[in-house]
Inverse folding.
């Protein structure tokens, strides 16, 4: 940046201040790749996570995060790319969940909960069958963002473009679906079709990010930034944008903490995102309590969020 | 406001020996019903009498259990651009970060599809509908900051902005204050004048009397016809009396109704309208 007279008189104090925040990225190419991967994950997670939060799909997101593990393990056993296995696992999970949901009239969360723990257990059993996989399991569950390759960055970018493109085309049915699925049906946008497309986007996001933040932690990146944004935004588009910014900040701060204190990068990113969520939650609660006094008791309907 | 859309002369709704219910189990059987275009029908009955079930079947959200049903010249739900449906007040809007005007804009989505830009006539309709329901000042307010009655007005504005040939509303005046009720009744009259047909479920007997036809429901068709003929003390007692007993002796009441549903179709008076 140009040092305009007065505002920035000397270069050295600025370097002292900014050094610990910028130098790791200037000196280590792997950190730049990790940051890019984190930003790309943040964008697709903000878009998809917005609908996960608005439609209450957190449970299914979690199920997908567990369901891809045996798929990845199976692919590694067969010598296939992990992404192929993750796709099969995710599709199997969606099929299983929708079958249970359609068959049972009552709340299906017991069956679904059991299904996804069973999938996780199956994945662990498969991985433990071969001792050479021991390290892979941690990598699959928690990601290896510091080892992000140029190829996986390209895959991540392509997935982000697909997620963004589909969300743009389906913006109206997705909004109707979040507002009221029956309104979507009556308006001629079949809720079942667009619900399926939404689930596929969640699956795509989970599958692609298993290399960066890992299958378990991607769930945090789906929920935390979008959840914080839901508390702040008054429009769906704004919610996505705020979510993406929170995700990107979390990636940057997480990587920085991980670099300076030598702790797990992906997990730190998710921790930072969660911390932001709870800070926003606390902030909005305090603000509501402060403004509640001057308000008629029954005038504004306050939602469950 | 743009010019009213011409409405065909075929009946908006024609039902013959229709049974409605959930999962193949009839709740109300043997419904014969014709709603001509440019006319109104009120469904009156207690909670659980089948009003919402019938409305949901009319708009295609529920498959008919038996019988034939033609809505707007197609299968139910087959003409989404000509249909508006306002369900009972729902809470899902609370979580959504949405402004009131965006809810009303949704009314124009069927017309414009996935990617078609809303035109100036769409924006005019949205503005007019919000003005009609007295919520134009709230257009930029977050939906979740509005009171229940204000939200209900926004939903009714959405139904108006659809400019549909058939408007189906489930308890549209529930939760409205006196002013909102009056605005709704005016808008309702204007929709009829435009040439639309209106079907609503209501608990308000006085309001129902304003409709061209009234259908009394008590898990069966008690009566169908012009309000003056149908809204008699005997029939209202029949409509609401059965379900009072049902409420006290739930299982016995259900059994009685289920037996009736299996029996011969109710012969109902279709009033001045002819069968299709």
């Amino acid at each position: 940046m140009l040092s305009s007279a007065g505002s920035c008189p000397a270069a050295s104090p600025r370097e002292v201040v900014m050094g610990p925040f910028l130098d790791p990225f200037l000196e280590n190419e792997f950190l730049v790749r990790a940051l890019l991967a984190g930003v790309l994950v943040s964008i697709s997670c903000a878009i998809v996570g917005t609908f996960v939060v608005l439609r209450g799909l957190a449970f299914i997101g979690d199920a997908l995060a567990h369901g891809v593990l045996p798929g990845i393990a199976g692919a590694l056993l067969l010598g296939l790319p992990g992404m192929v296995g993750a796709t099969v696992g995710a599709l199997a999970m969606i099929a299983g969940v929708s079958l249970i949901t359609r068959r049972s009239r009552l709340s299906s969360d017991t069956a679904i909960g059991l299904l996804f723990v069973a999938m996780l257990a199956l994945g662990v059993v498969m991985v433990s069958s071969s001792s050479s996989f021991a390290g892979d399991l941690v990598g699959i569950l928690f990601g290896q963002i510091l080892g992000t390759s140029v190829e996986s960055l390209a895959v991540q970018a392509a997935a982000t473009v697909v997620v963004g493109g589909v969300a743009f085309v389906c913006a109206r049915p997705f909004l109707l679906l979040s507002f009221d699925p029956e309104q979507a049906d009556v308006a001629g946008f079949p809720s079942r079709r667009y619900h399926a497309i939404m689930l596929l986007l969640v699956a795509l996001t989970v599958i692609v990010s298993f290399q960066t933040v890992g299958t378990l932690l991607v769930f945090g990146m789906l929920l935390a930034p979008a959840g914080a944004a839901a508390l702040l935004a008054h429009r769906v588009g704004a919610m996505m944008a705020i979510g993406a910014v929170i995700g990107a900040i979390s990636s940057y701060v997480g990587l920085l903490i991980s670099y300076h204190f030598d702790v797990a990068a992906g997990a730190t990113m998710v921790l930072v995102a969660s911390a932001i969520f709870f800070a926003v939650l606390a902030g909005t609660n305090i603000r509501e309590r402060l403004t509640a006094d001057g308000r008629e008791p029954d005038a504004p309907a306050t939602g469950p969020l | 406001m743009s010019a009213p859309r011409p409405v065909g002369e075929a009946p908006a709704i024609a039902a013959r020996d229709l049974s409605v219910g959930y999962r193949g189990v009839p709740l109300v059987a043997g419904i014969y019903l014709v709603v001509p275009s440019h006319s109104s029908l009120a469904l009156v009955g207690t909670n659980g009498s089948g009003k919402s079930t019938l409305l949901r079947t009319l708009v295609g959200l529920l498959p008919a259990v038996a019988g034939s049903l033609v809505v707007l010249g197609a299968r139910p739900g087959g003409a989404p651009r000509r249909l508006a449906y306002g369900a009972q007040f729902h809470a899902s809007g609370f979580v959504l970060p949405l402004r009131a005007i965006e809810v009303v804009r949704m009314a124009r989505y069927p017309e414009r599809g996935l990617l078609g830009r809303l035109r100036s006539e769409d924006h005019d309709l949205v503005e007019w509908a919000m003005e009609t329901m007295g919520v134009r000042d709230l257009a930029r307010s977050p939906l979740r900051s509005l009171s229940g009655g204000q939200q209900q007005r926004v939903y009714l504005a959405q139904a108006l902005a659809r400019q549909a040939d058939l408007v189906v509303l489930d308890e549209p005046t529930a939760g409205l204050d006196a002013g909102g009720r009056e605005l709704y009744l005016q808008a309702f009259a204007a929709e009829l004048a435009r040439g639309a047909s209106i079907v609503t479920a209501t608990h308000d007997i006085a309001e129902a009397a304003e409709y061209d036809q009234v259908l009394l429901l008590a898990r069966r068709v008690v009566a169908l016809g012009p309000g003056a003929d149908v809204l008699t003390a005997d029939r209202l007692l029949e409509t609401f009396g059965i379900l009072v007993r049902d409420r006290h002796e739930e299982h016995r009441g259900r059994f009685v109704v289920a037996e009736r549903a299996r029996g011969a179709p109710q012969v109902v008076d279709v009033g001045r309208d002819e069968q299709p």
Notes: Chain B is about 35% helix and 20% strand. Strands of chain B lie at 13-22, 25-35, 40-44, 66-71, 83-86, 166-170, 197-202, 213-217, 221-225.
